[in-house]
Amino acid sequence: MTTYTTLNLIAQIINYLFILINIYSWVLVAYALMSWVPQVQNSAIGRLIIKLSQPYISLFERLPLRIAGLDLSVLVAVISLQVIQQFIKIMFQLLVNAVL
Description:
Layout: H1 3-34, H2 44-61, E1 66-67, E2 70-71, H3 73-99
Helix pairs in contact: 1-2, 1-3, 2-3
Protein backbone atom coordinates (compact mmCIF):
# COMPACT_ATOMS: atom_id res chain seq x y z
CA MET A 1 0.00 0.00 0.00
CA THR A 2 1.15 3.49 -0.70
CA THR A 3 1.45 6.12 1.99
CA TYR A 4 -1.57 8.03 0.70
CA THR A 5 -3.72 4.91 0.62
CA THR A 6 -2.74 4.04 4.17
CA LEU A 7 -3.44 7.57 5.40
CA ASN A 8 -6.77 7.54 3.60
CA LEU A 9 -7.71 4.24 5.25
CA ILE A 10 -6.73 5.59 8.68
CA ALA A 11 -8.74 8.77 8.01
CA GLN A 12 -11.82 6.71 7.11
CA ILE A 13 -11.48 4.62 10.27
CA ILE A 14 -11.12 7.79 12.35
CA ASN A 15 -14.20 9.29 10.68
CA TYR A 16 -16.24 6.21 11.59
CA LEU A 17 -14.87 6.39 15.13
CA PHE A 18 -15.93 10.05 15.36
CA ILE A 19 -19.42 9.13 14.18
CA LEU A 20 -19.62 6.48 16.91
CA ILE A 21 -18.36 8.96 19.52
CA ASN A 22 -21.00 11.48 18.48
CA ILE A 23 -23.77 8.88 18.59
CA TYR A 24 -22.59 7.72 22.01
CA SER A 25 -22.53 11.33 23.23
CA TRP A 26 -26.21 11.62 22.28
CA VAL A 27 -26.93 8.35 24.08
CA LEU A 28 -25.35 9.88 27.19
CA VAL A 29 -27.50 13.01 26.79
CA ALA A 30 -30.59 10.78 26.50
CA TYR A 31 -29.46 8.98 29.67
CA ALA A 32 -29.26 12.30 31.51
CA LEU A 33 -32.67 13.43 30.23
CA MET A 34 -34.24 10.15 31.33
CA SER A 35 -33.61 11.10 34.95
CA TRP A 36 -36.24 13.82 34.54
CA VAL A 37 -38.83 11.34 33.23
CA PRO A 38 -38.44 8.17 35.32
CA GLN A 39 -41.15 6.18 33.54
CA VAL A 40 -39.01 6.22 30.36
CA GLN A 41 -36.36 4.20 32.20
CA ASN A 42 -38.71 1.21 32.32
CA SER A 43 -39.31 1.16 28.56
CA ALA A 44 -37.29 -1.05 26.20
CA ILE A 45 -35.43 1.95 24.78
CA GLY A 46 -34.77 3.27 28.27
CA ARG A 47 -33.29 -0.03 29.39
CA LEU A 48 -31.11 -0.13 26.25
CA ILE A 49 -29.84 3.41 26.88
CA ILE A 50 -29.07 2.52 30.50
CA LYS A 51 -27.20 -0.64 29.43
CA LEU A 52 -25.14 1.32 26.91
CA SER A 53 -24.42 4.28 29.17
CA GLN A 54 -23.90 2.79 32.60
CA PRO A 55 -20.43 1.23 32.10
CA TYR A 56 -18.92 4.53 30.94
CA ILE A 57 -20.87 6.72 33.36
CA SER A 58 -19.80 4.52 36.28
CA LEU A 59 -16.20 5.62 35.71
CA PHE A 60 -17.21 9.18 36.60
CA GLU A 61 -19.71 8.42 39.36
CA ARG A 62 -16.83 7.63 41.69
CA LEU A 63 -15.63 11.23 41.43
CA PRO A 64 -17.16 13.96 43.62
CA LEU A 65 -19.26 15.48 40.84
CA ARG A 66 -22.47 16.18 42.76
CA ILE A 67 -23.01 19.87 43.27
CA ALA A 68 -26.18 21.22 44.91
CA GLY A 69 -28.02 17.97 44.24
CA LEU A 70 -27.00 17.83 40.57
CA ASP A 71 -24.96 14.91 39.29
CA LEU A 72 -22.51 16.29 36.75
CA SER A 73 -20.98 12.92 35.88
CA VAL A 74 -22.82 12.75 32.53
CA LEU A 75 -21.59 16.23 31.60
CA VAL A 76 -18.01 15.30 32.48
CA ALA A 77 -18.38 12.04 30.53
CA VAL A 78 -19.55 13.85 27.39
CA ILE A 79 -16.80 16.46 27.71
CA SER A 80 -14.20 13.71 28.12
CA LEU A 81 -15.44 12.04 24.93
CA GLN A 82 -15.03 15.33 23.09
CA VAL A 83 -11.51 15.74 24.51
CA ILE A 84 -10.63 12.22 23.36
CA GLN A 85 -12.00 13.03 19.91
CA GLN A 86 -9.90 16.20 19.68
CA PHE A 87 -6.81 14.29 20.87
CA ILE A 88 -7.29 11.69 18.12
CA LYS A 89 -7.72 14.46 15.55
CA ILE A 90 -4.52 16.21 16.65
CA MET A 91 -2.55 12.97 16.67
CA PHE A 92 -3.73 12.13 13.15
CA GLN A 93 -2.75 15.60 11.92
CA LEU A 94 0.70 15.15 13.47
CA LEU A 95 0.98 11.78 11.74
CA VAL A 96 0.04 13.25 8.38
CA ASN A 97 2.50 16.13 8.83
CA ALA A 98 5.28 13.71 9.77
CA VAL A 99 4.65 11.44 6.79
CA LEU A 100 4.18 14.10 4.15
